[in-house]
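pinned: reference chain
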Amino acid sequence: MDDTFYSLPCPVFSAFLSDFHNADPLPVLKSLETNAPEVILISGDLIFGDRPDSRELNMDKNKRSLELLRGCSAIAPTFMSLGNHEWMLTARDLELIRSAGTTVLDNQWVRYKNMLIGGLSSAYYTAYQALRAAHPEKGNYPAPISALRFKKIQPELNWLADFEKQEGFRILLCHHPEYFPRYLIGRPLDLILSGHAHGGQWRFYIPSRKTWQGVYAPGQGLFPQLTSGVHAGRLVISRGLSNPTIIPRINNPTEVIYLGKN
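pinned: its structure tokens
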């Protein structure tokens, strides 16, 4: 695992985590303890979000994620947005996450010192919550209808207008980097922190461009452009903290990202 430092403008020395997927928390917590950030920001996919038995809570299957959050909150205030793997979380699941000391930002923002921290939830989370509300008779985890899985769903953007009016340094936690060119590129946001692409899974170096190229990313397809690093001076993409698939990561170490100066 790498510790990656970006000296981007950021008023508070911050750690940025993404795509933990219920992995081993100890390497991540060791990095955080060593570098002592003032705030910890998580842009989603904290858990591995397969569909649990209807009698279980999703977080019952993701106890290492709660261990990570408890460790994070002991180091610094911790804020989290919701990724696509959080799509089936219930209100009780979210209570457990909050009880671990984490502020969950579901299409909302908070002020922390001289920063504004917003969380744009994955469209999959928002759409599934609407499905659950429409079918309470189907229990905690109704099976997703095909339309939810395959139609083009969009994130909830209306709340951003109020967020963007506020005075202060605006950081948006947004799990999906592909949302940047579609919905966010023209908005007055100072930093946008994303993950989801897992660094492109397999990476190879292109000498003529002096850059690494990922092979595949969900939401972007083959040879995606937004998998890692800093783009447009304000979109920061994490390669993530785990490998939740059977396909190995090649030339693609996991990372904890640090922003600003310590």
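why pinned: The chain has one domain: 2-259. The mean pLDDT is 91.
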